[in-house]
TrEMBL record:
GO MF terms, alphabetically ordered: cell adhesion molecule binding
Organism from which the protein derives: Anopheles maculatus
PROSITE patterns: FAS1 (PS50213)
Protein name: FAS1 domain-containing protein
InterPro entries per the UniProt record, alphabetical: Adhesion/Biosynth-related (IPR050904), FAS1_dom_sf (IPR036378), FAS1_domain (IPR000782)
């Protein structure tokens, strides 16, 4: 929705509580809250059990890093980059969960102490890669725009701690900022060098170059460690 003196720009999520009510000229769906009205802070929305889009992320925080909620409670403005459920499940299958301090640092990388819309990211990403400091000490996240070759839509990607994620759903409005849903957990490097090249749009040309003569095959080995200088 568009902003004015009383409304915040962004999206409002509502649950359909009764669907497919037939009427003479169409169908009606009953929802549990009015759209347009932004009535919750980011922390409230994140911990509200009625929002199932980030249920795994909420469970991860409550079970393994409850102190993260106390940090959010003291913030005036925030933008949260929330990994979708599949990304959280994939991360929880690694040995990363044994280090609670490292987990908290990674969670802080998903928080920006400012209200950042997708439109603002696109405006600031015209001639250079847009970077924003996160709540994790001396850690930034970096944004890029990539065009879908089929639809020509601009896809927003965000990189943090060596992981590149694509935006799935953006501009979910809260009273103190925004929530954006992404398809990967930032800061958890669970990919091989080859997988990183294949999935990161900024490294895409080098990946296709390396497919010649099967050069990339060695980069998928897990019994060796690599440093790859990519143009």
């Amino acid at each position: 929705m568009y902003s004015n003196s009383r409304l915040t720009p962004g999206a409002v999520i509502a649950e359909i509580v009764k669907a497919n009510i037939p009427v003479a000229n169409g169908v009606v769906h009953l929802i549990h809250r009015p759209l347009v009205i932004v009535d919750m802070h980011g922390l409230e929305m994140l911990t509200d059990n009625s929002h199932t889009l980030w249920s795994k992320f909420r469970d991860l925080i409550e079970d393994y890093a409850p102190e993260f909620l106390n940090i959010l409670r003291g913030m005036n403005q925030m933008t949260l980059f929330v990994p979708q459920d599949d990304a959280v499940s994939q991360m929880m299958q690694t040995n990363f969960m044994s280090n609670r301090k490292k987990l908290l640092e990674v969670l802080m990388m998903h928080v920006v102490p400012d209200a950042i819309t997708i439109d603002k990211i696109k405006r600031n990403n015209q001639n250079h890669i847009y970077q924003i400091p996160t709540m994790s000490s001396r850690r930034f996240i970096y944004f890029n725009l990539n065009e879908n070759r089929t639809t020509h839509d601009k896809i927003v990607t965000v990189e943090g701690g060596g992981v590149n994620a694509s935006l799935i759903l953006g501009d979910i409005a809260t009273k103190d900022g925004y929530i954006h849903i992404i398809d990967r957990m930032l800061g958890v490097s669970y990919m091989t060098v080859q997988e990183k090249l294949e999935t990161d749009p900024m490294l895409n040309l080098t990946y296709h170059f390396g497919k010649l003569n099967h050069f990339n095959d060695q980069l998928n080995m897990t019994n060796k460690r690599f440093t790859y200088f990519v143009p």
